[in-house]
Amino acid sequence: MNTRTQTTDFTPVDQDLYAKAFQLLDPDPIPEPAALAAPAQVPLTTTAPVRLTGPVEKTLTDALAFLDTHGWARYSLVHPEGARCSIGALRAAAGARNAAYRDAGNLLLDEARRQHGKKWETIPSWNDSHSGAQVRSVWEAAIRRAHHMNI
């Protein structure tokens, strides 16, 4: 076997060119161990937590919006022109005599008793005996309570 070791026909390799070729083949080499040790900084966001409106709060809010849109009435459930008393607005907002309707009514009556005395037995009797501003004040307070109670 004849092997020539003295003379070669190879051209010497340019080391910079060699490094550039490997960088083109692998543009994201494995980071150095020191770079792995540093934790990545994640920006903190300050988004408010999502809070869902409870069924009682929604019923009360929808009923008050109904009163704002169609008008408030005394001495009748539904006025011929479309206005309603407080109980009529609750019924319109709830759509049925369900748990949200019952609980919203109880909360509204409780708030009416807080503001206007314990003598009120029903929402209609309280509604018919007070001014629109007084009735609205009770509605708004009941909505705030439902919100804080998360119901």
Describe the structure.
- The chain has 151 residues and is mainly α.
- Helices cover 55% and strands 0% of the residues.
- It has helices at 15-25, 33-37, 55-70, 86-94, 99-116, 123-128, 132-149.
- Helix 3 packs antiparallel against helix 7 (132-149) and helix 5 packs across helix 7 (132-149).
- The longest helix has 18 residues, at 99-116.
- It is rod-shaped and about 105 Å long.
- The protein starts with 14 loop residues before the first helix and ends with a helix.
List key phrases describing it.
151 residues; mainly alpha; 7 helices; rod-shaped
Could you outline the blueprint of secondary structure elements for this entry?
Layout: H1 15-25, H2 33-37, H3 55-70, H4 86-94, H5 99-116, H6 123-128, H7 132-149
In short:
With 151 residues, the protein is an all-alpha fold.
Strand elements, count: 0
Order of helices and strands: HHHHHHH
Question: How far apart are the termini?
Answer: 95 Å
Helix content: 40-55%
Strand content: under 5%
Q: Structural class, from helix and strand content?
A: mainly alpha
Rg (CA only): 38 Å
Q: How confident overall, as mean pLDDT?
A: 84
Runs with pLDDT <50, length 5+?
none
Shape: rod-shaped
Please report the number of helical segments: 7
Largest sheet: none
